[in-house]
Design brief:
By secondary structure, this protein is an alpha/beta fold. It has helices at 8-16, 18-24, 32-39, 57-63, 76-85, 121-130, 149-159, 198-207, 210-213, 217-233, 235-238, and strands at 47-51, 68-72, 90-92, 106-112, 131-144, 186-196, 243-255. The protein has a domain at 8-144 and 167-193 and 246-255: Rossmann fold (3-Layer(aba) Sandwich), CATH 3.40.50. The longest helix is centred in the last third of the chain and has 17 residues, at 217-233. This is Methyltransferase domain-containing protein.
């Protein structure tokens, strides 16, 4: 097993933004619950890995199914916050290319907001190794719904700063498929909203973005001004104590082939 270095945006940004990540990131829609239980077949006698678990936003969803949850996360600051908040999960240091588990030991491996960081045949080889026969790989992403004009404006502000950071919306992660160890990807989408004070659902959400957190302070200050201008220019944002950011959750799964 080869352990590829963590992308610099993740290594630097997530070390600094663990607290902001926990506050600013949206949860997942209720419709994902039956998807976890019925499609992925998660239940108390199953073992599921949350790979790239971060601070545990998705770990909580997995624990709710009653399955045994093993959270694997390479960034120590994220791992510490996850372990503190979710003591029922087993928390391990590891990466997609070096998962610290034995062969054919887990029923499901899930990557939420994570697979784009390590989308490669090498990572899929390692995921294939730890899955049991007919085990399932699940990939989940929350994405702001840019069909709403002010959200599209927000996306342009954020995306202008991404540099070489891998992102879900580019679709580059799909180049890891097809893979001989997995069947075709099956896909579902769910719409929902992230409601709260603008300081959390807009400002802290953007601050928690890896490549934003890794920026020099002067660039982060300039970004804060752009965000404040966006909020001030939108009546539905500036006149509300709470705002709702529309999201779409994309959920994929593939079954391990022999």
């Amino acid at each position: 097993m080869n352990d590829r270095p963590i992308h610099h945006a993740a290594a630097d940004g997530y070390k600094q933004a663990a607290d902001t990540y926990a506050r600013g990131r949206p949860g997942y829609p209720p419709e994902l619950e039956p998807w976890l239980r019925q499609v992925l077949e998660l239940q108390p006698d199953r073992v599921v890995v949350d790979l790239g678990a971060g601070t545990g936003k998705f770990t909580a969803r997995l624990l709710a199914t009653g399955a045994q949850v093993i959270a694997v996360e390479p960034v120590a600051q994220m791992r510490a916050k996850l372990a503190q908040q979710y003591p029922d999960a087993q928390v391990l240091n590891g990466s997609a290319e070096a998962i610290p588990l034995r062969d054919a030991s887990v029923d499901v491996l899930a990557c939420a907001q994570a697979f784009h960081w390590f989308a490669s045949h090498q990572a899929l080889d390692e995921i294939h190794r730890v899955l049991k026969p007919n085990g399932k790989l699940a990939l989940v992403w929350n994405q702001r719904d840019a069909r709403v004009p002010w959200v599209a404006h927000l996306e342009r502000i954020v995306n202008a700063l991404q540099g070489d950071t891998p992102r879900y919306y580019t679709g580059a992660w799909r180049q890891a498929f097809p893979h001989p160890g997995f069947g075709p990807l099956q896909e579902q989408h769910f719409s929902h909203g992230h409601t709260g004070p603008a300081q959390d659902v807009i400002f802290n959400r953007v601050r928690s973005t890896s490549f934003i957190a890794a920026l020099p302070q002067d660039q982060r200050d300039a970004l804060e001004r752009q965000l404040a201008e966006l909020v001030a220019s939108e009546p539905q944002l500036r006149d509300s104590r709470e705002v709702t950011v529309p999201y779409e959750t994309a959920a994929f799964y593939a079954i391990k082939q022999a």
